[in-house]
Amino acid sequence: MNILVINAGSSSLKYQLFQMEDETVLAKGRVERIGMETAILVHEPKDKGEVHEVSEILEHTTAIRKVLALLVHPEHGVLESTAEINAVGHRVVHGGESFKSSVLVNHEVKQEIKRLFDLAPLHNPAHMLGILAVEANMPDVPQAVVFDTAFHQSMPAHAYLYPVPMVLYRKHKVRRYGFHGTSHNYVSERAAAFLGRPLGQLKLITCHIGNGASCAAILGGKAVDTSMGMTPLEGLMMGTRSGDLDPAIVPYAMGKEDLTLGEISSMLNKHSGLQAISGISSDMREITEAMEAGDKNANLAFEMYEYRLRKYIGAYAAAMNGVDAIVFTAGVGENSELLRKRVCEQLTYLGVEFDEAANRSGRGQERRITTANSKVQVLVIPTNEEWVIARDTYRLVQSAQN
Ligand code: AMP
């Protein structure tokens, strides 16, 4: 079975075509600058040369049509016909409280995703464009939606509620939802397989550290807490997002700097985090290079980033009354030897025995970076959110057929 995975943004669209039986990616690519005359389409078919096209793509339906044409193109294609695409899986950021797992798309599901636009105004409308664009091009192909929030729906009320008047929750659904759920779910399953132990018996702390970053406490395979909240702004310090701060700063800064709601929101989401403290970049590679060159602000940004992550690990060990393994994943988690080293060296109180050589080797592979005797294991597991979307879509389509 071939599954097309789509991650639609407001002006972009990423795709991967999976052959499920042998778990291969037949093609992947992206369309950027949708809505412009100079939209860019990059298509990377397996074992064939990359295709770059610049053309007018004014909306998502045209973008999908162009992607489908490339997938069956005589020279650049990987399929004979689009009829070989058996299902499409979409990433959807916000599933609110309605979606506790992935589902097949039908009229009610689309209506519910629309009702959730308020909670994810930048993301959910774009995902809907992707769903409708597929529907317009391939009306008979089943579609599934996989939510970033769904995995965290197992959090207990004491973890997901904010200590504010309950009317905000009852009337406006103000609560913690958590994000990166597909990634936390995937790496927790892989960690159990790597350790050769049943997931149901493990206490795990998964750290998805990329441009956006979040930690999750996973007890027996179920998320019991996670650092992102009602929006992806809460929790860890990130590339451009502040993470946790005193909420009283918001009205104070607005008053002092004469900022509008939109401006303060943009400041905390787009102009904070590593970028704000270093004054250099939101990219950990550039921060690390600047630190090596002796830049004090880059060093401070890194120290704050690492410190805040380490505090969350401590909090989640406390939340679960212990931890068996800590997992690093995503761009920074998988690639920054320095961040992992600085964090792990301060976790001796938990029983972490860091293995410096293991931390430096095996890039791109699932591996352990603690010694064989370490009481708590620390693993690096490359995430694969697209694969989880493909796998969930495959399962849903198969069970609908049976
Ligand atoms: P993601 O959002 O998971 O794609 O992660 C993107 C981030 O990973 C980038 O902003 C970089 O800061 C970080 N990253 C990628 N490669 C490296 C590396 N070799 N060392 C440190 N950070 C890296």
Automatic annotation (TrEMBL):
Q: Where in the cell is it found?
A: Cytoplasm
Q: Any idea of its EC number?
A: 2.7.2.1
Q: Report which superkingdom the organism of origin falls in.
A: Bacteria
Report the function annotation for this chain.
Answer: Catalyzes the formation of acetyl phosphate from acetate and ATP. Can also catalyze the reverse reaction.
Tell whether ATP-binding is among the UniProt keywords: yes
Question: Keywords in UniProt for this one?
Answer: ATP-binding, Cytoplasm, Kinase, Magnesium, Metal-binding, Nucleotide-binding, Transferase
Binding annotation for ATP: 14, 208-212, 283-285, 331-335
Q: Which family does it belong to?
A: Belongs to the acetokinase family.
Asked if the record carries the keyword Zinc, the reply is no
Q: Which cofactor does it need?
A: Mg(2+); Mn(2+)
The annotated active site, in chain numbering, is 148 (proton donor/acceptor)
The record's free-text note on cofactor binding: Mg(2+). Can also accept Mn(2+).
Q: What is its main location?
A: cytoplasm
**InterPro entries (alphabetical):** Ac/propionate_kinase, Aliphatic_acid_kin_short-chain, Aliphatic_acid_kinase_CS, ATPase_NBD
User: Where does the chain bind substrate?
Assistant: 91
Matching entries from CDD domains are given as:
ASKHA_NBD_AcK_PK
Q: Which PROSITE patterns match?
A: ACETATE_KINASE_1
The record's listing under NCBIfam families reads:
ackA
This protein is called what? Acetate kinase
Give the catalytic activity. Answer: acetate + ATP = acetyl phosphate + ADP
Record: residues binding Mg(2+): 7, 385
Indicate the quaternary assembly: Homodimer.
Q: Tell me the classification of the organism that encodes this protein.
A: Bacteria, Bacillati, Bacillota, Bacilli, Bacillales
A single Gene Ontology molecular function, please? acetate kinase activity
